[in-house]
Design a protein that fits this description.
heterodimer; A: alpha/beta; globular; disordered N terminus; B: alpha/beta
Chain lengths: ~500, ~300
C-alpha cells in the first residue's frame, strides 16, 4: 500500500494530473440478449377483422434493423381499399363492442396486458431489432409501460360512470390512430387501451419504419380472444396514413408525430365533425439552479436528452443553467457523457442504440452542422461506432443563443444545447421562448421555487428533479405547437367518450 | 490545510435521494459476463478486508483468517491474496505474526468501535497502541452523537487528532451511514472526513443495519471523485457490511468503474469489508472455471 508523502500529512496521494479515465482497467465483455426464443416471419400481412390478410394493393415494403441495415421482414402496403376494409371491419364490430359491459371489456384488456407481460422478452427483442433502441430500455421501459397502459385502462372500463358522474359517457365510434416510430409498441398501447376501455373500435396505422411490434400485438389480441374488428392494424407509408385520417367513417382521429404532419391532419379533418387529438413535437428545457443536487441533475439531463437516442417528443433538448454553476455542470456532464455506452442495441450494457433511420440521421447531421456554422461549440465523447447502421455519438453544444436553429428547432436526436441564465425570471422567459410546449424540467432543492416555476412554465408536463418519467395514470400532452388533448390518466380517457348529458336528458 | 471548525466549511451540495437511488439501481443492471466476470471477481478478492469483529474472536480464529487472506483458495494461486485482515486491537499482534512476509495488511478497528462512545483520550490511546502493535491501517468510527447534534467541528477535530495518532498507518473513517440516515448527512460527513485528512471513506461498522448499500457507496465515490478533481488528492472508499454474494460485489465494482474510473480500480483505492463474501466469490470463480457449482464444503469455512 502506498504511503502518504511526508509533506502531505493529512490526505492521500497527491497527483498533478486530475483527469479521470474510464474503461481502461476493466472492460465489460459483450452481453448480447439472445434471439433464439422467437422468429420473425419473412412477410407480414395486414390485420383486419381479426385475421391477417394480404393487401389489396399486392405490394410490400421492407423494414430494416437500423443498427445493421439488414432487412428484418417485408410488410404489407395498405392502399385506400385496404384502409376502407379496415374501417368497415371496425364499424361492423362497434355495436357489439359498445354494448358489452364495462366488466367484460376490462376482462379483454386485463388478458391483453397479462399476455403482453408473458411475452415481454420477445416484444423487447423485436422492438430493439426494428427500432434500434437499446434492449435495456425496451425491457425496462417500453414493454412494461405498454402493459401498464392496458392494466390501467382495464381498471377504468367498468367505472366510466365514476369518472364522469351524471354525464353518461358514451363511446365515439371508430377511432383512426396514427403513431410514430420512436415508441412503436408503447404508442400503440397508449392509443388502443383507452379507446377500447371506453367502448370504441380502432384502426391503427404504425409508422412505416417500425411496424413489427404493433403487428405482433395483433397476435396477442387473437390470443386474448378479442372480437374480430375491434382493433385493426394497417401498415403502410404516409399515403396510407392520409387515407386513414381522411376516411369519412371515423369518429375521431388521434395522432402522435411531427408538428408538420399534425397540422396537415388538422386541415384535412376540419369541418368534418371528427374529433381530433394531436401529440406533436417539443423543444423542452431543463432549468438547473445553483442549489440543485448537482450530480443527480447531471443524471437527469442525461436521461432527458440521451434516453431513446433523443428520439423523444418531450426530450429535454435545451439545458438552461444558472451561470454560477455552468462550468461545474458542463464539466460533470461531459465526464458523464463519456460513460454512455453507444453500440449494439441488443447488448444488455448498451445505453444508447442506433439512430432510427437514414433520413433522421441526415436531419440530425444537418442541424448539428448548422450549430457548428453558427459558432456554437460542439463536444462529443470519442466512441467507436459500428461500421454499419445509423449512428450518432451523444453531443452537447455550449455557447448557444436563443436565436440559433439548434435552440429553436426540434432535432429529435442526441443533441443538447446549453444556454445560461442569471435570475429565475430570465429562466422562465427563455424556457417559454419556443413554439412548443410539451415538457420542462426544474432542478432546484428549493420547494417554493419549484412551485413558482411550475406555475409559469407553458408546458404540458413539468418534471421536478427528474425527467422523462411516464405513468399510465399521469396525463401527457402539450401546449402550442406541441398539440392538444391529453393521453393517459382520467384526462386521456375524456378524449375517447362523448358525454351524453345528465340522467334526465334521455 | 487550515483547521476548519465552522460549520460553513462543511457545506456540501444537496443530494436528491430518488435520483441517487435510481442511478445506483440502473448501474446495478449491468450484465457482467465471462472474462469480465472472472476479472471482476478476482479483483474483488484482492480488494477484500477479511474481517472478524466478534466478542468471541480467538487467536486461533484470527490465524485461520490470516491464512485464508494469504491464499484464499489453495488450488487457485491466481486468486488473492486479500488486501487486509481486520481485527480488534488486542488481536493485532497475532495477525501481524501470522501475516509476516505477505502483502496482506493488518487493519485494526479503534476509537471505541463500534459506537465510538468513549472519551477522546481513550480513543487516541487505542489508536496509538494498535499502531505500535503493528497495525498498518486504522478503521476509526466518527462521533455520530456530535454529528447528529450539529457539532461538526468536534467531529472534524477528532478525525484530525486520530489521523495524527495514526502516524504512518492509513486511516479509514467509518461514517456509520446507517445511523446518519439521510444522504445529505452522509455527504456532509464525507466532506468532514476529507477535510480532516482521512485516507478512506468507509460506510459502516457492520454492526448497524443497514450497512453498506449501493446508493450510499455511489455517494461516497462521488465525494471521493469530486475531492480528487478539487484538490488532486486521491482517497479510497470502503464498502463494509451486508455484501454477501459475488454478484453484489460486481455491482459495487461497476459503481467504481463508472463513477471514479480506472484510478480507483485497485485494492489501494477500493475495499470490501466482509466476512462471508469471500466464499461466494470463490464459488463463483470455480463455477466460471469448471462450468459447475461446487459443494459448499469444498471451500474452507473460516
Amino acid at each position: 500500500m502506498a504511503k502518504t508523502k511526508s509533506d502531505e500529512p493529512k490526505t492521500g496521494e497527491t497527483t498533478g494530473d486530475r483527469t479521470l479515465t474510464f474503461g481502461g482497467v476493466w472492460a465489460y465483455a459483450p452481453a448480447p440478449e439472445s434471439t433464439d426464443h422467437f422468429t420473425i416471419a419473412p412477410r407480414h400481412e395486414l390485420f383486419v377483422g381479426g385475421e391477417f390478410r394480404k393487401p389489396k394493393t399486392g405490394e410490400y415494403f421492407a423494414t430494416i434493423n437500423p443498427a445493421t441495415e439488414a432487412v428484418l421482414s417485408e410488410v404489407a402496403l395498405a392502399g385506400e381499399k385496404d384502409v376502407d376494409a379496415a374501417v368497415q371491419a371496425a364499424t361492423k364490430a362497434f355495436p357489439a363492442w359498445r354494448k358489452l359491459s364495462g366488466e367484460d371489456r376490462a376482462r379483454y384488456l386485463f388478458r391483453i396486458a397479462r399476455i403482453l407481460l408473458e411475452r415481454a422478452r420477445e416484444f423487447a427483442c423485436l422492438e430493439t431489432l426494428d427500432n434500434g433502441k437499446p434492449i435495456k430500455e425496451t425491457r425496462d421501459v417500453d414493454v412494461p409501460l405498454a402493459a401498464q397502459h392496458f392494466f390501467y385502462h382495464a381498471g377504468w372500463a367498468d367505472k366510466l360512470d365514476l369518472l364522469f358522474p351524471g354525464e353518461r359517457p358514451e363511446p365515439l365510434g371508430v377511432i383512426g390512430q396514427v403513431i410514430p416510430w420512436n415508441f412503436p409498441l408503447l404508442m400503440a398501447a397508449w392509443k388502443i387501451a383507452p379507446a377500447l376501455a371506453a367502448g370504441n373500435t380502432v384502426v391503427l396505422k404504425p409508422a412505416e419504419t417500425s411496424p413489427l411490434t404493433a403487428l405482433r400485438l395483433c397476435e396477442v389480441f387473437q390470443q386474448a380472444g378479442l372480437p374480430p374488428g375491434v382493433v385493426n392494424v394497417i401498415t403502410g407509408d404516409g399515403k396510407t396514413g392520409q387515407a386513414l385520417v381522411r376516411h369519412p367513417g371515423l369518429a375521431k382521429v388521434a395522432f402522435t408525430g411531427s408538428t408538420e404532419v399534425g397540422k396537415e391532419i388538422q386541415r384535412a379533418v376540419a369541418g368534418q365533425g371528427v374529433e381530433l387529438t394531436l401529440e406533436l413535437g417539443g423543444k423542452a428545457a431543463h432549468l438547473v439552479f445553483e442549489d440543485a443536487a448537482i450530480d443527480q441533475a447531471v443524471e437527469g439531463v442525461v436521461r432527458g436528452i440521451f434516453f431513446n437516442q433523443g428520439h423523444v417528443c418531450c426530450a429535454g433538448s435545451r439545458l438552461l443553467v444558472q451561470e454560477s454553476v455552468h462550468d461545474l455542470l458542463v464539466g460533470k456532464l461531459k465526464t458523464r457523457m463519456g460513460r454512455i455506452r453507444v453500440g449494439d442495441p441488443m447488448d444488455k450494457n448498451t445505453d444508447m442504440g442506433a439512430i432510427h433511420s437514414a433520413p433522421q440521421l441526415a436531419r440530425i447531421r444537418e442541424l448539428v452542422g448548422d450549430g457548428v456554422q453558427s459558432g456554437c461549440e460542439l463536444w462529443q465523447p470519442t466512441c467507436t461506432l459500428p461500421p454499419k447502421g445509423y449512428w450518432f455519438a451523444p453531443a452537447v453544444f455550449t455557447g448557444v443563443s436563443m436565436s440559433h436553429r439548434i435552440a429553436r428547432e426540434e432535432i429529435f436526436g442526441p443533441v443538447l444545447a446549453v444556454t445560461t441564465f442569471r435570475t429565475p425570471e430570465e429562466a422562465v422567459e427563455k424556457a417559454n421562448n419556443t413554439a412548443y410546449g410539451l415538457s420542462a424540467g426544474i432542478w432546484t432543492d428549493k420547494g417554493a421555487r419549484i412551485l413558482w416555476l411550475a406555475e409559469r412554465m407553458k408546458a404540458g408536463v413539468v418534471w421536478n428533479n427528474t425527467f422523462n418519467r411516464f405513468d399510465a395514470a399521469s396525463p401527457f400532452g402539450g401546449f402550442k405547437e406541441s398539440g392538444f388533448g391529453r393521453e393517459g390518466g382520467r384526462q386521456g380517457l375524456r378524449a375517447y367518450v362523448r358525454l351524453a348529458g345528465g340522467l334526465g336528458a334521455g | 490545510m487550515p483547521a476548519a471548525t465552522s460549520p460553513t466549511e462543511f457545506r456540501v451540495p444537496p443530494v436528491d435521494a430518488v435520483a441517487l437511488e435510481t442511478r445506483a439501481a440502473d448501474l446495478g443492471t449491468r450484465s457482467i459476463k465471462k472474462a469480465a466476470k472472472v476479472q471482476g471477481l478476482k479483483l474483488a478478492v484482492a480488494m477484500m478486508d477479511l474481517t472478524t469483529l466478534e466478542g468471541m474472536d480467538s487467536p486461533g480464529k484470527v490465524i485461520q483468517l490470516c491464512n485464508k487472506a494469504r491464499t484464499p483458495h489453495p488450488s487457485r494461486p491466481d486468486v488473492g491474496p486479500c488486501a487486509a485482515v481486520c481485527v480488534y486491537p488486542d488481536l493485532v499482534p497475532i495477525a501481524v505474526e501470522a501475516l509476516r512476509g505477505s502483502t496482506v495488511q493488518v487493519a485494526a478497528v479503534a476509537t471505541g468501535f463500534p459506537s465510538g462512545r468513549t472519551d477522546r483520550q481513550t480513543k487516541l490511546r487505542e489508536v496509538e497502541l494498535a499502531v505500535a502493535a503493528g497495525a498498518t491501517e486504522i478503521d476509526m468510527v466518527i462521533d455520530r452523537g456530535a454529528f447528529l447534534a450539529g457539532r461538526y467541528g468536534q467531529v472534524f477535530d477528532e478525525i484530525c487528532a486520530v489521523k495524527a495518532a495514526c502516524g504512518p498507518a492509513h486511516l479509514k473513517v467509518i461514517l456509520e451511514t446507517g445511523e446518519l440516515k439521510t444522504y445529505d448527512n452522509i455527504r456532509r460527513a464525507c466532506r468532514i472526513a476529507l477535510l480532516a485528512g482521512g485516507d478512506f471513506l468507509k460506510t459502516s461498522t457492520g454492526k448497524v443495519t443497514p450497512a453498506s448499500t449501493l446508493p450510499v457507496v455511489l455517494l461516497l465515490l462521488e465525494a471521493a471523485r469530486d475531492w480528487f478533481l478539487e484538490t488532486g488528492r486521491m482517497v479510497g472508499v470502503k464498502a463494509a457490511g451486508g455484501i454477501r454474494t459475488g454478484k453484489d460485489a460486481l455491482k459495487y465494482l461497476v459503481l467504481v468503474a463508472e463513477t471514479c474510473g480506472d484510478r480507483w480500480m485497485s485494492p489501494q483505492w477500493f475495499r470490501f469489508g466482509a466476512s462471508s463474501l469471500l466464499t461466494d466469490v470463490l464459488m463463483q470463480l470455480e463455477k466460471e472455471r469448471t462450468g459447475r457449482y461446487q459443494r459448499a464444503t469444498d471451500f474452507s469455512a473460516d
